[in-house]
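Entry 14. Ran structure prediction on the chain below.
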Amino acid sequence: MTDTKGNPREAFLEALTLLSRHKDTLVPKLEQLSQWTRERGFLGGLVLTLLIACTGFPPVLGLSSLTTFSGFVYGFPLGFVPAYVGAYVGGTCCFILSRRYGHGYVRKILTSHHIMANITRAIEKKGFKLFLLIRFAPYPYNVLNVTLAGTTIPTTQFLVVTGMSLIKLLPQIYIGSQLINFTDSLTQHPSPVKLFGLLLAASLGIGILVYLYWLSKKMINQVVHDEEEHNGLVRHNRESETLWALDDRSNEEL
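Output, structure tokens:
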């Protein structure tokens, strides 16, 4: 197997290659499950929406997989509806419940995840813009729902920012809708143009995610650095004032 460590583009292509190798067994099962979901009409869409909503709570995984499956079932852009509604409802419920009843769990997350603790500090300092940027960046969606419950941001701001940021699910919906075409392109001797288009789309998507992560991390580190520098300056001033007070007392005694 090719070593893809540190190379997202090669990892993406290898994942598609593995999928194409097992296409004869995996795709029929996906199609059967997809047909079952569509035949149930509203009920099928509701079940898929609820499953996606569950991924808004840690440690439940599967948001990306279920979002891609939604695109596979309903196509693009219709598959965006259950994915968006499910992710939005799940994230909102997790945030509200964690803020009201999960104080201990929130503290546990912030204590054990240094990065998440820094995120909360940065959001409270920078506000809406950094909050929106972090929501678009590839941080764990469900862990962020809990982490954000430990901040002082208003619930209305959480609802607005989360609603705006979930448009990032659209590329996964598109990938799901084109899943069979992707695997076919790797098994049927595709033209260089198709391969280039696939590679370009993957590189662009990964590049945007990496840039958003880098930018948000840079801003978070800057806020933390400024805060620590300020705290150090305050501590230094207090120590200086204490020394001056001791010197004054010594002079008075003399």
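Residues 28 and 212 are 36 Å apart (CA to CA). Will compare against last week's run tomorrow.
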